[in-house]
């Protein structure tokens, strides 16, 4: 009797309907700290290998943000003297779920 009851309850449990909705994935915010490495640093420790100030070696920054191998954002910061702390923080808010790639180029012509 117990075996039949257990079998009956198992069938009811595993035969239940699961209702799943495919709602859009939430959006998120991203922060990436970009450091300037000291010239010929070899310790591979970012806390000792980074320059004390971001604009020590960097005059301008050109960035490209790709999502699923397609360019979705591009920008240029032409004056980096405003960034006095070691990292430059790249921030984007409200990015949709997906695979992203950030390419950063510095000290180059504006016509990249």
General description of the model:
With 112 residues, the protein is of the alpha+beta class. It is 15% helix and 33% strand. The protein contains two helices and five strands. The chain has helices at 2-14, 46-49; strands at 28-34, 61-67, 70-77, 88-95, 100-106. Strands 3-2-5 form a three-stranded antiparallel beta sheet, with no helix packed on it. Strands 1-4 form a two-stranded antiparallel ribbon. Strand 2 (61-67) and strand 3 (70-77) form a beta hairpin. The longest helix is centred in the N-terminal third of the chain and has 13 residues, at 2-14.
Helices and strands in order, then pairings?
Layout: H1 2-14, E1 28-34, H2 46-49, E2 61-67, E3 70-77, E4 88-95, E5 100-106
Antiparallel strand pairs: 1-4, 2-3, 2-5
């Amino acid at each position: 009797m117990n075996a039949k009851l257990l079998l009956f309850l198992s069938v009811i449990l595993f035969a239940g309907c699961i209702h799943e909705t495919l709602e859009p994935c939430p959006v998120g915010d991203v922060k990436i700290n970009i450091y300037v490495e000291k010239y010929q640093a070899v310790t591979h420790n970012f806390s000792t290998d980074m320059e004390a100030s971001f604009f020590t070696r960097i005059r301008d920054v050109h960035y490209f943000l790709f999502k699923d191998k397609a360019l979705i954002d591009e920008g240029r910061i032409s004056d980096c003297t405003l960034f006095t702390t070691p990292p430059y923080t790249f921030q984007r808010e409200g990015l949709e779920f997906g695979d992203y790639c950030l390419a950063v180029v510095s000290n180059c012509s504006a016509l990249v």
